[in-house]
Design goal:
The chain has two helices and six strands; from the N terminus they run αββαββββ. By secondary structure, the protein is of the alpha+beta class. The chain has one domain. The strands form two sheets. The protein has a four-stranded antiparallel sheet, with no helix packed on it. A two-stranded antiparallel sheet has the order 1-2. The longest helix is centred in the N-terminal third of the chain and has 18 residues.
């Protein structure tokens, strides 16, 4: 391989690895990630894909069995996914 191909492969690998760092929640065959600039999931879409949450406080959904808390903005767009401690 020449140096250009190696450099290109390294850049692509780093770009793909950076997407893995965004927090996510897996619901069946669906993976929902925060930090997406396009196609930001809505509260309604998350409930359709993940089912009803363990609990809900306003614009925050708790999926305790998955150890996740999902925060939505006032328009129902996903803003952040956080790990939570499970019992």
């Amino acid at each position: 391989m020449n140096i250009c191909k190696i450099a290109l492969l390294l850049i692509v690998t780093l770009l793909l690895a950076s997407n893995v760092n965004a927090d996510s929640i897996r619901c069946g065959t669906h993976v929902i990630q925060d930090g997406e600039l396009e196609n930001i999931p809505t509260l309604k879409e998350v409930i359709q894909k993940c089912g009803q949450p363990s609990s809900r406080e306003g614009q925050t959904l708790y999926y305790k069995e998955k150890g996740k808390r999902l925060d939505f903005d006032s328009e129902g767009r996903l803003m952040a996914i956080h790990d939570i401690e499970t019992d």
